[in-house]
Amino acid sequence: MPESSLIGLPSSMSASLEQIAEVHHPLVLLTRHSIREEVAGHGFASYALPLTPHGRQLAQAWGRHLLEYSGRRIHSCVSSPIQRCVDTASLMLAGQAELLGAPLGGLPQIAEQALLVEPGSFVHDVQQAGPVFLQQGSLGFINGFLREEISGMKRPQHGVRDILQLLHGQAYADAASSSDRGIHLAVSHDTILAALLAVMAQQRVITWADWPEMMEGVWLWFDHADFMQATLYWLWRGVQYQQSVAQLIHLADSDPA
Question: Which of 10, 17, 113, 215 is most deeply packed, by most CB within 10 A?
């Protein structure tokens, strides 16, 4: 595939394919949606903002590239129900179908998942948290969340636990998953990825330099079908990390909200 078709793809994503080549566990790609229309202000994007024509082309090209250069097919797909996320997932699947010469009807179904809507998994009372999100903008809101300063929000570890359980369940949905060489795709928003990555890295403050770009994602995998016995591995911007799931979410389980 011509490199021009992947213009706009964050450089870390294509390079990551070499690093995941030797992973022999079910792989999850949790990605921000593709390139959407621009937004002004604090960084809050209306749910109605669609992908640009280039964003649509990029999502399809990236889906095809994933299969062409990694040999890994998308086996399952969950998405925020916001249309730009659903469209990103659909186009990535279509790119793989194009390479396979497969009918679109044979593609995995896209399961819409409310936990992946921003600020989604991290909120238990949107009436309290929602206005703060609009007032502070994306970065300020996530930093307030990490410092546990915003009413109506889960504790950070609770929100991360919920997303990781969702992704683990997606990866190990059937008995054959332990030898799965495919990809389990999850499409979400920048705030979800930013908060998840910060909590996993034990950061209390992040900057725009930490912020995920459009069509940028984190690769995750678990080494055990039992969530609480697994070690979580993740690859973000060329650096691989790992942490015991039990240790990562210990505070969430020992101090319920």
Answer: 215
Compute and round to an integer the Cα radius of gyration of the chain. 17
pLDDT exceeds cutoff 80 at 255: no
Structure tokens belonging to residue 23: 């992973």
Q: Which domain holds residue 113?
A: 3-254
> Nearest 5 degrees, angle CA 159-CA 55-CA 171?
40
Sign, Cα dihedral of 92, 219, 187, 184: positive
CATH of the domain at 46: 3.40.50.1240
User: Quick one: CA dihedral 55, 59, 64, 65, positive or negative?
Assistant: positive
Going by C-beta distance under 8 Å and a sequence separation of 6 or more, which residues neighbour residue 9? 58, 61, 62, 215
> What is the per-residue pLDDT across 9-37, written as a single tens digit (0 to 9) for each?
999 998 899 999 889 899 999 999 999 98
Asked which of 34-43, 106-115, 130-139, 204-213 is least confident by mean pLDDT, the reply is 34-43
C-beta of residue 195 within 8 angstroms of C-beta of residue 159: yes
Residue 138, pLDDT score: 86
Number of domain units in the chain: 1
Pairing of strands 231-236, 217-222: antiparallel
The 10s digit of each residue's pLDDT in 192-242 is 999 999 999 999 999 999 999 999 999 999 999 999 999 999 999 999 999
Residue 203 CA from chain centroid, whole number = 18
How far apart are the C-alpha atoms of 171 and 49, rounded to whole Å?
30
- Token representation of residue 236: 């973000």
**Structure confidence at residue 256 as a pLDDT band (50, 70, 90):** very low
